[in-house]
Amino acid sequence: MEEISSAAQFIPVDAFDIIIFGAAGDLSLRKIIPALFHRWRDSQIPDASRIVGVSRTEMDDEAFRKLVYDSYRKFNPNTEIAAEEWTRFSSLLHYRAVNAADAEADWSGLSALLEQRRDNLRVFYLALPPNIYGAVAANIDSAGLKAPDARIVLEKPIGKDLASARAINDGVGAVFAEKNIFRIDHYLGKETVQNLIVLRFMNSIFEPIWNANAIDHVEITVAESIGCEGRASYYDTAGALRDMVQNHLLQLLCLVAMEPPLNLNSDTVRDEKIKVLKALRPVKLRDIRNISVRGQYASGATDGEVVQSYEAELERGSNTETFVALKANLDNWRWKDVPFYLRTGKRMSGRHSEIVVQFKDVAHSLIKDGAPPPPTRMVIRLQPDEGVKLLLTTKDPGPGGMRLRYVPLNLSYADHFEARYPDAYERLLMAVVRGDLALFMRRDEVEAAWQWVDGILAAWEADETPVHKYPAGTDGPPQAAMLLDRDGREWWAGK
Question: Given Cys at both, which of 65, 143, 179, 344 links 107, Cβ 3.0 to 4.6 Å?
Answer without folding.
Answer: 143
